Amino acid sequence: MLSPAAHPGATKPMNETLEGLIRLHRWQVDERQRHVTELETLAATLRQELRRLAEEQAGGQSAAGGNLLTRHVYPGTIRRSLHRQTTLEQSLAETEAQTTQARDALAAAVQELKRYEVAHAARGRLRMNGAARLERRLETDVIPIENFRRRAGRR
Questions:
Q1: SS3 state at 78
Q2: Beta-carbon neighbour count of residue 97 at 10 Å?
Q3: Is the sign of the CA dihedral 77, 83, 87, 88 positive or negative?
Q4: Cβ distance 67 to 49 under 8 Å?
Q5: Are 100 and 68 spatial neighbours (Cβ–Cβ below 8 Å)?
Q6: R_g of the chain computed on alpha carbons
Q7: CATH tag for 13-146 (out of 1.10.287, 1.10.150, 3.30.450, 2.40.370)
Q8: Closest CA to 39 of 113, 104, 92
Q9: Average pLDDT score over residue span 39-64
Q10: Closest listed residue to residue 26, CA positions, set 140, 113, 136
Q11: Domain boundaries, the chain
Q12: Half-sphere exposure in the Cβ direction for 30 (13 Å, CA)
């Protein structure tokens, strides 16, 4: 078994350990929140690209109807456009799945942070209650000591 001196962290008060864990978990919550935000931004960008592509497809259909050359080139363009649309839809589905996972991880990190914050607050209340008990004990000890001094002074 290691002695407390063998491990430098063993001599730290529990309060400092809890504060360190709280800082660590706050950092993890911040990182997970950033990740969720990045994924949501990516999903919004993909949705915007899909809307833009749909507008281009609608514009291409109307333009292809009038010109013989455009009608000849249009099938290749629409094939590429449909492939791009499929790719964007797959990317959006993957991003939304990742966002759901990231939100779950964020919720778990927040829950873990709250657990440490509650433990830290409880430890603080215990410390305050202990200090109040000590103060009351000192006050109640002063009265008998004072009575003893008075009696000793009369003799």
A1: helix
A2: 11
A3: positive
A4: no
A5: no
A6: 35
A7: 1.10.287
A8: 92
A9: 85
A10: 113
A11: 13-146
A12: 6
Predicted structure pTM score: 0.63
SS3 category, 131 = helix
The pLDDT tens digits for 85-139 are 999 999 999 999 999 999 999 999 999 999 988 988 888 777 777 666 767 766 6
> Scanning the structure block, which residue is given the tokens 């507008």?
55
Q: How far apart are CA 43 and CA 41, in angstroms?
A: 5
Name 18's Cβ contacts closer than 8 Å, sequence gap at least 6: 116, 119, 120, 123
Question: CA-to-CA distance for 114 and 119, rounded, in angstroms?
Answer: 8
Report d(CA 4, CA 116) in Å as an integer: 24
Contact 29, 106 (CB under 8 A): yes
Q: What's the pLDDT at 124?
A: 75
Q: 32 is written with which tokens?
A: 């997970």
Q: Which two tokens stand for residue 101?
A: 């996972």
CB 120 within 8 A of CB 15: yes
| Six token digits for residue 123 | 């430890």
CA–CA distance, 74 with 80 (Å, rounded to integer): 10
3-state SS, residue 90: helix
